[in-house]
Amino acid sequence: MARAGLTAERVTVAGAELADEVGLDRVTMAQLARRLGVKDASLYAHVRNLEDLRGRIALLAADEKTIRIAEATAGRAGKDALVAFANAWREYAHRHPGRYAATQTPIEIDPVLAAQAPGPRRAVELTYGMLRGYGLAEPDLTDAVRLLRSTFHGFVALEAAGGFAHARAPQSSWLRALDALHTLLEHWPPYGEGDSA
After folding, report:
1. What's the distance, Cα to Cα, between the start and end of the chain in Å?
2. What global pTM score does this model have?
3. Which residues of 93-129 are buried (b: 16+ CB within 10 A; e: fewer)?
4. In sequence order, what are the residues at sequence separation of 6 or more whose Cβ sits closer than 8 angstroms to the Cβ of residue 72?
5. 3-state secondary structure of 162
6. Rounded Cα–Cα distance for residues 150 and 58 (Å)
7. Type and span of the H or E element at 32
8. Residue 132: C-alpha distances to residues 65, 81, 161, 172 (Å)
9. Residue 145: CB atoms within 10 Å
10. Quick one: how many helices (H) and strands (E) in the chain?
11. Tens digits of per-residue pLDDT, 59-109?
């Protein structure tokens, strides 16, 4: 029998906390049950399996990260918005490495839960909205979104793995990267007729 007060939300939050501590790929249902003080079987009254738990963690993390980005970028435009957006992304990845990993890992998510979760949809709206401030339209918007995601995720993933061993501080490189992105976005090359779709 499930412990009184145990809910899918509590199981998800506990799973997210565990992922931040040990890494998303090291979370098991047995570990989570021990953390919550229940038998393994009790968890299955709230989540279907480990993949379902990971999907729920991903949705929770997407909501949290989007809220932080929205708060950071509110009332900002251009470079101020870009820097605030990027810093909120990086700070979330630093503070919640397991949750962040869930947002960057291919996970099969329950379509009903995904449809109800505002985080992923809001993240797209925020990103595209910020980039429209640079005067971009499709297909350049999608290309720019992919560039930002690749840059932000690549930087924080390398940083987390200890990949920046050079004497120059990663923060200095981060700031220069944001300067470079801003300059590129302001002078985005026009989509030409010779480009493939």
Report:
1. 55
2. 0.90
3. beebbbbbbbbeeebebbeeeeeebebbebbeebbee
4. 84, 85, 87, 88
5. coil
6. 18
7. helix 29-36
8. 21, 11, 33, 27
9. 16
10. 10, 0
11. 999 999 999 999 999 999 999 999 999 999 999 999 999 999 999 988 888
